[in-house]
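haha ok so turns out i had the wrong file open the whole time. this is the CORRECT one, sorry everyone. sequence first:
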Amino acid sequence: MLEQLRMQEVSQIILSKPEGAVIRQNRTNPQEKGVEYGDFEVGEPVMIINNPSLSNLSFVSRPVTANDGQGHIGTAGITNHIDFVINEGSILYALWSYIYGLNDEEPGLTKIRGNEYLEIDNQGYAKLTAKPEMSPGNDKFYVYKVSDNENILLSNEDYEICVSDTEPRQWYLHILNGQEGDQYFATYNYLIEATTITKVKQVHNNVFCAMDIYIDAVDLKNDDKHTVYIHCDKVQVDTNMVISVNNSSKASFTPIHVKSVATGEELNKDIATVVVV
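then structure:
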């Protein structure tokens, strides 16, 4: 019956956590009435992708030729994997973080570098938006005077960093010989409360999952609607992260590359199971 069905669209794809992988996620904690951080359980969905754009689904075969002393005997085809690409990028952070690096869900304070334009008052002071982190080496405070679309770097003797005596503490840039209304550009490191941190590693993790695909289909003979269910016991997942900037249609475009791995102990192993409902 599968040959007379017209596949319309993929309604859902579920990738479940296999044994051996450690992927962190947020969980609600009833006792604490908040959120705690734990690992996905074996068999728990790592990703549930609704209505993705499935660009290509192919059962890839390769020929195997048998020869004897007199020449060619015959050629057989072996389907060694399913190869397809899913175009969906809105809910992949946990999996992408596991593939490409280490995901810290409780980072706390982290150091970042920022910059801001400042205008000094009649006493040469300008309020900073954050507390500067300054130390020899990488943590340096740089100040430029903005004049006629040109940034001129000031020496350390031309300015100082001051802090208020009252609470909450406020940090100021003091230009020693500045004049009211002068424009300056400052760049420095400061601490900020981060939600998550992912350190992208050079060597990627291999992710093996169980996969379930649900496809809406129509019978070409009588226009009956069906659901085609495809299950793979083991697939390998890889993805490239492309961040879309100023794109109102999606958060990011993340093509997911999935290859099915043959499972079973028999010689003719299973690649996938296709069920028409």
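The two ends are 11 Å apart (CA to CA).
again sry for the mixup
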